[in-house]
Amino acid sequence: MKKSILLLIACLLLSMTACGSTNKSDEEKAAVEVENKLLNKEITISKNFLDLAEVKDPQESIDSLVSEKKIKSGKVNEDGSITYIMSAAQHKKYMEDLKENIESSNQELIQDTSNSITDIKMNDPISVFDVYVDPNSYNDFESFMALGFYIQGGFYRMFNGDKDPYVTVNFINKDTGDILNTANSADVLKADSDTSNAENIDPEVKITELPYAIKVLKPDSIGNIYGHATFTNNSKYPIKDFSLEGTIPSTNENTCFISTDTVMPGETSPIFESFYEQDTPINHISYTYVKDGQDVHVEYDAKLKSYSIF
Fold first, then answer.
1. Contact at 8 Å (CB) between 290 and 178?
2. Residue 50: exposure state from Cβ atoms within 10 A (0-12, 13-18, ≥19)
3. 137 contact partners, CB below 8 Å, separation of at least 6
4. Confidence band, pLDDT 50/70/90 cuts, at residue 9
5. In this predicted model, what pLDDT tens digit does every residue of 150-166 receive, in sequence order?
6. CB 182, CB 173: distance < 8 Å
7. Whole-number Å distance between alpha carbons of 247 and 255
8. What letters, b where the CB count within 10 A reaches 16 and e where it falls short, cover 128-162?
9. Whole-angstrom Cα distance, residue 92 to residue 248?
10. Which residues are within 8 A (CB) of 177 and not within 5 positions of it... i.e. 6 or more apart?
11. Residue 193 class from Cβ within 10 Å (0-12 exposed, 13-18 middle, 19+ buried)?
């Protein structure tokens, strides 16, 4: 994930990172820091936001980028972060281009007839995306598009120097104006943080008590192949937020089946779907069971055959 973020930054014209001399601890540093000078901008990305382990000579790569983009300077700091310095005019132009790219991406989503999106509006600091959808074709799977808005809006806000770069995405019924789903990128960061507190012990509800089945459907009119999944709750606790993740062999792309329904003991879930093809291995399973009114979230690694409990 870190490597993907680093590549994305480079593709967004700059491969920016941290402002070297600071007394903050790694935990206190923001992922990206923007420091205003009289004529220049210093842009900082914490080493925790990067993965340079496989880059043979990070400084050489940075020097090449500085030369190509005519940035004033860039260096790898002793703490593993990287600092880029550019003129205020360069920074302003970069932010304008970045906003233009976001608007262009929004238009592509609106024009894409394979989704239910009819319009996208964003506020001036790009902290809120209102995504208007056709309620007749909208499904919960499309809510995962929020991740794309998180990345675009989050990068814009971080490189603009915003101290609170979180992004809210609202999926709105175009006919009634009702919010169908809302999410904030802060929730994703909290979930990542909670992962470090996971307990590697066996849960009371094991995956053997939640057998699942996936039926492969015929290709649709444009050749996409979907699968219909269900699972049965053979445990003594209610189950909710059940998901199956795998990698499609022919494309090497990830697919994720998600059920948000609460399934009581003895019940079989409603059908939930995702892209799929025969013999796609399921690598990761997650679910939540409710015990004594408390949610217990479980992550199961099918390759390692190990559980983590949150």
1. no
2. buried
3. 115, 116
4. very low
5. 888 888 887 787 777 78
6. no
7. 6
8. bbbbbbeeeebeebbbebbeebbbbbbbbbbbbbb
9. 42
10. none
11. exposed
- Rounded CA separation 145/211 (Å): 28
CA–CA gap between residue 296 and residue 310 (Å, rounded): 6
36-43 average pLDDT score: 72
- pLDDT tens per residue, range 160-195: 877 777 899 999 999 999 999 888 887 765 555 555
pLDDT on residue 205: 95
The amino acid that residue 274 corresponds to is: S
Question: Which residue is listed with tokens 């990698």?
Answer: 247
Residues 6+ apart with CB under 8 A from 244: 212, 214, 229, 256, 257, 282, 284, 285
Tokens coding 60: 């050489």
Amino acid letter for position 213 = A
